[in-house]
Design brief:
Spore Coat Polysaccharide Biosynthesis Protein SpsA, Chain A; alpha/beta; 267 residues; 15% strand; 7-stranded mixed β-sheet
Length: 267
Amino acid sequence: MELSIILPTYNEGRNLSDLIPKLEDSIKDHVDRFEILVVDENSQDSTNKVLKNLQDTYKNIKFIVRKAEPSLPLSIYEGILKADYDFVMWLDADGSMTPDAVVALIKRQKLNFDDVIIGSRFVEGGGYKGVKPNSQKNIFKTFRNIYNSEDSILAVTLSKLFNIFLNYIMKSDIKDMTSGFIIGKKNLFKGDRIYKCFQDADYGEYFTFLINELQNKNIKLIEVGYICATRVHGVSKTGTNYRQLIKRGIPYLLTAYKIRYENEKNK
């Protein structure tokens, strides 16, 4: 397998300095060749300096600075278009998807070359932020772990509720509709209809559009559980208060209703 890993970023310099060396070390024994594409939204922190230092050690890092209007979905799509290898994966740059989780998805992909593999917090082996691997899911310990991180208990709780609502509205068999952690053949993520999934979204709801489009094309989707890690550095782009989170959440719900309506109309 030859793999391109896409990291969309904005002000994640400190997290990249931790994440990229760990990715490099973890992945090298599981793929023949790989590259890391950092697609940056003109960060105002140390990202530029961090990437230049990392490129001195790791020659397979590409640093792409977008000049267009900021857009998480279009940053990812630009990474797909500029990827050199036949398989692509993308994940958050804040460390919530750990190198061990990345390896788990790669291993499953190698067993299912023609399918798309999704990292899922809501299937067996998965867990939301604050849950520690190999431990019982205790809600009080989970909240304490989140409280001691840079994440928001409110954001984590509302995000989980949004996923429940999305599954209810769409009646989907995919449990993690907002995962943003995925691997598959590059050609499955290209074309006009796929591009529209990214183009029509403001933020993470692109993933819901994408899942629906892949299912409509009869592509098999496999969820692999992973424990979502808490943020170590920086501030979440999703929001930390009710107003910000509800503003982020409404497009997800509208997306779900739109997809359900279109799917029922096309039956």
